[in-house]
Amino acid sequence: HSSDSPESMWFASLLIFAALQGLYGSQLLCRNKYSFCNSLAPTIDWGNGFPPQESEMEDICLKAESYYTCLVECSVLSPDPLDTTTETINATLAIVKEVCNKESRLHTEKVKDDSTNLLQIRCSRCLTLDLRFFATDTKHSRFGCSTATTAVHMRNYLRSSECYIDLASTDIGYECGKKAEIMYNGYISYLSESEDVDDADRTRHRYCMERAYKMACVALEILEECGEGAQTTYLELVHRSKYMSPICSRSTVRELRGEFIEFLAEDEKQEKNLLQSFNL
After folding, report:
1. Deepest in the core among 93, 186, 195, 240, taking most CB within 10 A?
2. What letter does residue 280 receive in the DSSP assignment?
3. 82-93: string of b/e by CB count within 10 Å (b at 16+)?
4. Helix (H) or strand (E) holding 42
5. In what order do the strands lie in the sheet with 119-122?
6. CA 36 to CA 111: how far, in whole Å?
7. Is 139 exposed, middle or buried (0-12, 13-18, 19+ CB in 10 A)?
8. Which of 246, 234, 211, 268 is CA-nearest to residue 13?
9. Which helix or strand (DSSP H or E) is residue 121 part of?
10. Does the keyword Signal apply (predicted)?
């Protein structure tokens, strides 16, 4: 297919979804009652032959839908009051279905800009972003965005996908994870000097803050290596999948956006990027 075809748009979207899974470095953790769903999960070969052919991506789509549907059904048939991943699973299943449907508005809604003669994708939110990946939610038109559009050249879109793949082949996840651990330890030491620290719930607190910082670190690497549009797409996927919801309490999110950022003492530009990542 040519790089400007709807099929290429669909293929690029799938690559971004696959790259997100690889960069973020983890899948939803299933409890024992979910374990039989794992056999349905898709696998992606990051070695020779990647990216796969379109038919292989179709197979990944089918398996991904089956896997997340299985998890949803398990959570309904065997509800666990201690399981906090249900919302995340449902949100991720919705994303998979949207990305994998070539007829969805995500892939088909394009308008022509006479001034630039470039393909455009309708923007569903009033944000000045280079790339709008999820252009399907019309409810945001009440904010006055119904006619807003963002010009996206398909070759640039595909180039972002390739950049994701390049990053996925590096140690970015590991390196950002180590940075997150160092930053959290420093933050806790800082808090210990200035106030009493309650150790009762530190495990969840640590997990939330380290995962959030790792996500922000990856996003900053994507911004530097792939550009603002690619970073925006990555954060859209992470935020919309509600990946952090089972991990972070609202109070910890407020702490991330307040005391933790204050502790990091970054410049104004970096602080803005961190706030964008921590908008959980």
Report:
1. 93
2. -
3. ebebbebbebbb
4. none
5. 110-112, 119-122, 149-151
6. 44
7. exposed
8. 234
9. strand 119-122
10. yes
- Distance (Å, rounded) from C-alpha 259 to C-alpha 9? 41
Residues in the chain: 280
Question: What angle (nearest 5°) sits at the alpha carbon of residue 157, between those of residues 154 and 163?
Answer: 145
- Burial (CB count <10 Å: 0-12, 13-18, 19+), residue 208: buried
HEC letters along 205-260: HHHHHHHHHHHHHHHHHHHHHHCHHHHHHHHHHHHHCCCCCCCCCHHHHHHHHHHH
**Best CA proximity match to 213, nearest among 236, 190, 184, 242:** 184
* pLDDT, tens only, 188-239: 888 875 555 555 556 778 888 998 899 899 888 888 888 887 787 778 777 7
Q: pLDDT tens across 31-58, in order?
A: 554 566 777 777 655 444 445 556 666 7
Please give the Cα distance from 57 to 51 (Å, whole number). 9
Q: Does the bond joining 51 to the residue before it have cis omega, within 30 degrees of 0?
A: yes
| Host H or E run for residue 133 | none
The Cα–Cα gap between 270 and 213 comes to 13
Structure tokens, 84: 């906090």
What does pTM read for this prediction? 0.57
Question: Quick one: how many helices (H) and strands (E) in the chain?
Answer: 11, 3
- What is the residue whose two structure tokens read 């293929």? 11
